[in-house]
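From: lab user (bench 3)
To: helpdesk
Subject: output format question, protein + pyridoxal-5'-phosphate

Hello, I'm new to running complex predictions and I'm not sure whether the block I got back is the full result or only part of it. Here's what I submitted:
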Amino acid sequence: MTTSIEDAAPVARQRRLRTEIPGPVSRELQERRSNAVAAGVSSTLPVYVTSATGGLLTDADGNVLIDLGSGIAVTNVGHSAPAVVDRVRDQAGRFTHTCFMITPYEGYVAVCEALAELTPGDHAKKSVLFNSGAEAVENAVKIARTATGRQAVVVFDHAYHGRTNLTMALTAKSVPYKHGFGPFAPEVYRVPGSYPYRDGLSGPDAARIAIDRIEKQIGGDQVAAVVLEPIQGEGGFIEPAPGFLPALSAWCRDNGVVFVADEVQTGFCRTGSWFASTHEKVVADLVATAKGIAAGLPLSAVTGRAELIDAVGPGGLGGTYGGNPVACAAALGAIETMRTDDLAGSAKRIESLVLPRLRALATETGVIGDVRGRGAMLAAEFVKPGTQEPDADLTKRIAASCHSQGVVVLTCGTYGNVIRLLPPLSLSDALLDEGLAVLEHAVRTESRA
Ligand SMILES: *Cc1c(COP(=O)(O)O)cnc(C)c1O
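Helpdesk reply: Thanks, we reran it on our side. This is the complete output you should expect:
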């Protein structure tokens, strides 16, 4: 085995700023990038990463940053979690690909068995594996349409489901996800969801409005699937009011409609349980997962009622890379880590540490209209003081200030006015505290500016 300088370097244990952010080496790489990489792919914080462990990123200038984004809720087990790295190394040394559709292997089966066990509900379940969240959601729709013989798909305001043609149609926000990319797939219908801070409605009332819209404008017997995020991600970390999800789930059951939970961002212990649907005891017919499933290796899945999944005949589902053996090995390592380290419990602890501080900050500064979230999926929505008017500019300045101090935070929201926190669930209390202190300072300073 060869040993590189990086291998010999000590593992970073704390935030360290050696240069301005981004530093000279990152800026040089950014220059190279601008000549070679499509402008359509953007980066929140263009520091070029050379290694990462736990909740810390080390960049090409030797800066060490605290990661409160987990690559968008992906590295739930932390960067380079030992069980993931060991299994990936071992699998890569044995074989990297055969194509499960040609000659199969055990890892794929083991991931599907784990998904059957971990997703909500004790009915008979099966799974099919893909590479990305969008692919999983798209295939859930294919399955629902085949199983029901119907075509219409219902989605919600502020929804995000991906960037492929069908999932663009399912996604709500135009710029940057859809603008100029039409025509979009037909038979997709958008209805109001539940956004307690802005609609002021109870869950059952919001559900009644949505259901009335579906029945009057589409017809319940035309609907193949209702697709929703139990907590909306890109749309603004919007947690529906209690009762909204159960009411929709019950309506789907009564009308023979497939209820699809898009748990791509909320899954795998992120919200303090394996899946966010659990908080309201909702059992979806199909669950789409990705992001946290394999600690960063590309893997996604549709898991659900065996009879629905098996409605599609042989050859109807799949893909060259779907359920790649190295990605499956990573998933098995990630799931093992979540179990043995009780990362759902860690997510709850993160919630109990962060929410009170964000609430205090809201009272103190007057620029945070709403603090919300569950587990380690937490957010502050920024508004002009005394109003509900979104303040995207302030949000951007606060995020930029955190970045300059070596703390990675992400924004989201239809109005671009939400700072979201998605720390690795394994993040130490000390690093979390330090990251929050930087965020608090940024909010105080920028809200006075
Ligand atoms: C990220 C995301 C997707 C799309 O996943 P990709 O892997 O980027 O295709 C779909 N749904 C939700 C809720 C997401 O957060």
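A quick orientation on your result: The radius of gyration is 22 Å. Let us know if anything else is unclear.
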